[in-house]
Structure formats: C-alpha cells, structure tokens
Amino acid sequence: MSEVTLRQWLLSDAPTSRRHARLASLYKGWLSFRSNTMAMFGLGILVFLLLVAAFAPLLAPYDPFAQSLSNRLQPIGVEGHLLGTDSLGRDILSRLIYGSRITLYIVALVALIAPVAGLLVGTVAGYVGGWTDTILMRITDIFLAFPRLVLALAFVAALGAGIENAVLAISLTAWPPYARIARAETLTIRSSDYISAIRLQGAGALRIITKHIWPLCVSSLIVRVTLDMAGIILAAAGLGFLGLGAQPPSPEWGAMISEGRRFILDHWWVATVPGLAIFTVSLAFNLLGDGLRDVLDPKDSGQ
Amino acid sequence: MNMLEVENLWVKFPTRQGIFDAVRGVSFTLGKERLGIVGESGSGKSMTGRAILQLIRPPGIVEADYIKLEGQNLLDFSEPQMREVRGQRISMVMQDPKFSLNPVMTVGEQIMEAYLLHNNTSKAQARAKSIAMLEAVSIRDPERVMRAYPHEVSGGMGQRIMIAMMLIPDPQILIADEPTSALDVSVQRQVLDIMDALVKERGMGLIFISHDLNLVSEFCDRVLIMYAGRVVEVCDADKLHEASHPYTRGLLNSLPRLDQPRKHLEVLQRDPKWSEAPSVGGHS
Amino acid sequence: MALTDGTEQRRPRAPLAPWLKGSLLTLGSIAVTMLGLLFVTFIIGRVMPIDPVLAIVGERASQSTYDAVYEQLGLDKPLLVQFFYYLTDVMRGDFGMSLLNARPVSEDIARVFPATLELATMGVFMGIVLGVPLGVIAAVRRGSWIDQVARVVALVGYSMPIFWLGLMGLLIFYGILGWVGGPGRLDIFYEDIVPARTGMILVDSALAGDWSVFKNAFSHIILPASLLGYYSLAYISRMTRSFMLEQLSAEYVTTARVKGMSERAVIWRHAFKNIRVQLITVIALSYANLLEGSVLTEIIFSWPGIGSYITTALLSADMNAVLGGTVVVGLIFICLNIFSDLLYRVFDPRSK
Question: What CATH architecture applies to the domain C112-351?
C-alpha cells in the first residue's frame, strides 16, 4: 500500500470512498485543463493578479494617493517611476497595483451576487412551474430586453455613483442569463427518477432544491461566470470611465483612463497603461473560461 | 469488362494516438453487376465508398496502387477533373434523406442543380428532365414534390428523390451507402426495387454497402465481407452459405432462419487474427 | 349543463389558425415585455435621489408653490395611477421636459438619434462585410493560420475596453498619423452647410450633392465606426464560424460534393444558405449591442448621439432625459428582436 503514489491513488479506477471519487475526478479535470496552454496562461495571470493585490502595500513603491505636483506627467521609465506619473504627480505603477484590489473586489462581488440571484430565480421557476415560472421568466425577459450598459447607467443614476452601486447595477443587469441556465438545468433534473424517489421519501421542495438541484447547476454556472468575468471587468471599467463607478482619487483602472484621457495626445502613457492592465486581466479570464468550458462542459468544446 | 478497379486501397486518419487505418489494402473490381460490401459499423465499408469518390477530407489520407475508372487512374485526377467524375460518372446515395437533402432548398432546386452541373441546358429543360426523373422513381405528383422542401416529404419518398437526384446526370456507377437503413421496413423493399430496376435498365454498376447480410445476399450478385478495414472474404451471393471464413460463418450463424429454426443463436466470437491477416482480393 | 353544452358550443366557433394564434401570443409577449420595460424605468425614476419638484421650482420656492407643482406632477396620486399617467404620456411620445434645457425630451432624442444610427449602422455594416467571410473561411480552413488569426481577433475584441481602444485609435490615427478627422461629426468649417433631412450627415450631404462635406464627415466617422465594426466583427465572425462548422459536417454537404459541385459552390450555395437564418439573429443582436456600445464610443469621439445624450443628462441629474433615452434604446432593442424573429420566419422553410 505504501508504494501507491498520490498520483496513482488519484487516478484509480475504483475509488474507495466518495471523497476519493471526488478528488479523482477533480484531478483528472485538472490534468486535462493543464494540457491547455492558453488556459494555463490565463490562470497564471490571474494568480499573479491575486498575489499583487494581496501584497500591494509591499509591492507598491509609493503611496498611490501621494501627490507631487512638481513631478507631474513624468514619462515611462523615468528614474524612480517605472510607468511614469499622472497629472497630479502620483506614481502610475503604485496606483495600478492598488487598482488591482478594486478590480478584484468588483469582480468577486458581482460573481457572487448575480449567479446566486439567477440560481434562485431559475431553480424556483423551473421547479415550481406554472404561473410562478411564467411570471419569473417574463421578468427575466424584461431585464434581457434592456441594453445592459444603459440599464446599469440608469440604475447608477438612481442609486448614486460609487463602487458598491456600480456592483449592484452590474449585478442587476447580469443575473438574467444565469436564471435561464439554472431553469433549463432544473427542468431536466426535476423530471429525473431519483428526484421522484426523494420526493416519495418525503423530502420537501426546499430540501430538493437546495440539496439536490443546486449542486448540479453549479458547474455550468461556473463556466458561464468565468466567461462573463471579462464582460464584468469591462462594464465596471466603463462605469468608472464615465465617472459613475469608483470616485476619484480612487485608483480604479477605468477612472485612471478617464483622467489620462485629457492628456492623451501629449502624455499617452497615462491612459495607455491602465487600459493595458484591463485588457490583460479580461483576456486572462477569457482564456481561463475557454479552458474551463472544455473541461467541465465538453459538449460545447471546439466551438 | 471492368468499369472500376481498385487495388490496395488504404484510408488513414492521423489521431493523437497515432495513425488509424480505417481501410487496409482493399482490392476489388466492378463490372456491370451489383457488388455488395458487408461489414459491421467501423469495418471501413463506407470509407471505401467515399475514398473512390475522393470525398475523404483532410486530415484523412487515401492511398492506393490505383483506382481505375474505365482504365483511367482517378488518383492522378485533379480536383476539377474529379468534379467531372462525381455525379456524372460515379454517384452515391447516402443513408438518411433527412440529413442528405439540403433542408432550405426545394426538392426541385436540388434535382435541377444536379442536372445543370453536368449539362449545359436551359432551366426549363432541366425542370422537364427532373420531373421525368421523379416519375421514374414512382413519385405520383412530381410537380408538387418539386416545390416541396425536404422536411415535407416522408423518408421513403426522400430516398427516392435522392436516387432520382443521383441518377439524373446518367452515371455509370452508383454507390449506395446503406440506402435503406434509415427507412421504415415497409418501404425498404419498394426503394430497393426502384433502384434495382433503374440500375439494370441503364446498364450501370452498383456498389451496395450494407450491414445487412441477408439483404445483400438477396439483392447482389457478388459480396465482399469486410472486417476491421480488410476484405476477409469474397463470394458469389448465391453461394454465401458456402462461405468459409470464420467471421462470415459466425455472422451467418448468428442470424435466425425461418427454414432452419434453432433453439440458440450463436454469439459471434471474434479472433484478433482476422484483422491482422492480409486482405483478400475482390476481383471477379 | 357543462358536458353537453360544452361540446355544442364549441362546434360553431372556428378554431384559431395556428399561425394566428402564434402571432397573437408573440404580440402578447412583446406587449408584456414593453410594459415591463416601462415599469422598470418608471420605478428607477421614482427611487432617484432627485426631487423632481425642486428641480422645477428651484431651492427658494415657497411651500405653496412646491405643493402646487407636486400636485401638478401627479406625485400625490398612488404609484399605480402615476404609472398609468406615465404610460399614456409615453404612448403619445411624451417623455417630459428636459430639466437642463427645458425642451421636450422627445425632440432632443429625435435630434441626436440619427447620429447614433449613422454610426452604429456603419459599424455593423463593416462587421458583416468583414466578419461573415472571415468566419466562413475560418470554419472551412479549420486550424489554418487564418483560423488562428480569426480566433485572436475575436479574443482581443472580447477583452479590450472599447473606450480605451478608441483613445488609442485617436492617439495613433488622429494625433500621430493625422489620417482621420478628430472628435465630432464634422470640422467646424463644414457645419450647417447641408440641410438636415435625415440627420445622418453622410446621407444628407450625398443628397445635397456636397461631396466636400461628405468627405469631411467620412473622415470623422471612419474611426469610431471602425471601432464599433471591430467589436461586431469579433462577435459575428465567431458565431459564423461555429454555425458553419456545424453545417459543414452535415451530410447534405457531402451530397452536394457527390453531385460534382465545386467547393466554393458547396460552401456558399449549400452550407451558407443554411446559416442565413441564424446569422440574421446574430446580426440583429450585434446591431443592438452596437447601439449600446456607442455610449462609450460617443463619449470618446464627442459624437452627439443618444449615448452622449444619456450620459450628459446623467451627470447633470436630468432624470427625464435619462429615462427617455433608456426607454427609446430599450424599445429599439425589442423591435430589433421582433424584426429578426420575422425574418427568421421568412427565410426558414421549416418554420412555416
């Protein structure tokens, strides 16, 4: 027994326990994911981003808010400021590093709120059926009928500008597709025999939905969320750019582009650098999402 | 006289695990006869038919000593030359008319197109010819069928339309790839009879690809039996019961027979040696 | 009474034709969606932290003036009644007065909308002209260099913030190279020369035969339109590719080859014909997305369209203008969906 390596144990065809089976299937998924170079590249960027955000105070050479008007609009590569300085003489690299925290914060919040809301609406609609289904799905359609950014704009207008409200506005426009997915999954699951069996054992609707339907909806939702992350980042940056998201002097990347916009012709780097950061991160999420889809949702792969 | 001669045909597909040989060294000839190719799925019988028409798409590879059509080696033909061969000289009927007819074009458009591709005539003449061809495959109301879309016709009628479409340029050879497998049992016979009558009347050669040993032995003059990409046995259809290869024997013994009822049907035992042995020549 | 009468009564009533029933259902669901859209905007308007009365009467008005206006606006009525008033107003094309310039919002929107329409149409046109062939070729030559290029183009398009790409475009093509006109629809010198008939300057100047204006307008629109075109290209080419891949593996494609058809005819006359219907939906969706994507693009290029209008109104807390703009864009969204649905029925023989 001691000669069995961890790898062999994980690749065993005959799992000895539930935990063993789950770990084995995770490991196999990881192996197939690992062979996808682009997806690994995306994952690498995101891990790097996480580390940067976690150790921002250690990594940033300056205080992101420290102004130095004598030192303003320094070009890239100038002594002491790797990426130059902005119009108030703040170090762009430091702001970029602190900005990663805001980006992650927004993405994490939206990725928590929207899919959970969608999951709730979708599973209830799919499981209860009848009028509840019709009404909930009609509401979903109404939200889908809105252009997302315009709806988010209107929400922010109603709620007031700021990061939390931007998150809320983006979530409000992002949940309908998840509700659709969750409903479709629920419809197939609920008609299966084992759900009937559980119901015969006396399980209530609440128990069936939370214990048996939700866990099965999760993997398709995860894929969708990962693919949507890039869109979330872009939407958040867009709101920031319009001055409706994070407020100055916050080093949010979209807002940084907005600040740099005024000097675009003479001091191009001020707007260019944060844009590149947004691009890199959303590209990483797209690559990761493609890879995850291949592993978790093989029927869509190759498309 | 041989219309088609195939010598040492290989069809290969590169895969991650190495090269997969779908067809391995198949040789046969075809005269004005009905040649049956029988085998289970994956035996390479369909690939053989498609390789003759050079329809194997990359990354698939077709290799052969030669594939001669009336003495001309098709392997030396350029793609435009092959297009002259396809339809006009060799044609093919496929399994399921539900998928082999274009769903967004009317039946008439599709048949006329087949005629116009090889005949430089007016649309009106192509139309007249198409209607005559539909009548030839026993379609009663050809004018209406010409205007119909494929989803509006039944499977049996769809397959007759397919036969009409494939025979309209007057080819010498027809490859029928499981032409009745997707049809209701009640119309299978009818479709086969129509096809048979037309092939005989026009003096064509027919390659009939099927997994159904009984059907092939009834319908064809000569039978090639394929297994794992090779021809394991060739025999005249009426002498099929004298077949000697264990695979053929196994297939025959696993079929129920009305004239010799048996308590137990045998289960086919496969021998890995069969797939390693060289192909048998299918020359007449 | 129920059993016998029921059957007796049913006979004389002619059953609804299926297509009629289908159309009624579609119309019903469209009406419900539109109603929902208006309700959402109405609610947003009510929770806005802006007092509409104060915005009209000003900070220093007396309580009695305030109350009069409060009543005049119907704010003392129950919410549902207010919604009903709002509904009837919108039906008449009345979105209220802009608080900023005291003009009817509907007039403002009618004035700015052609600019957006011109931009988005040109963008989606570029997206179709380049994206469809790119997607088809990528599918036909799967795995070739052109397929890889198409993949990268789409991936970059999905990942790039549009406003940043717009800034970079301005920097490079206007600031450094000087190939295109800068922000705005025209140079000042060319403004107000041609009469505004459609509001789309390219069309107006062509109608008036004034090609110098046309040239100037073109030099201004080409960059923002290319930008939008790039985004719709990314989407359209990806979708075209996956639709084509599905069709190319279909058996009828082999049938066409067996007939002796050239590869080009097989692809365009057979396979492509089958994706037309799906493409229409994608293009309609992409057009709708461009109307939205133009919000950020219009800001970057100082393009006086509906996106700029909504954003400006938002920043100056002009509630009526924001809601009016939102409703109009939402209605266009719904109309595009209906339109693509209709075309679907016309082009797909199986849907009849």
Answer: Orthogonal Bundle (1.10)
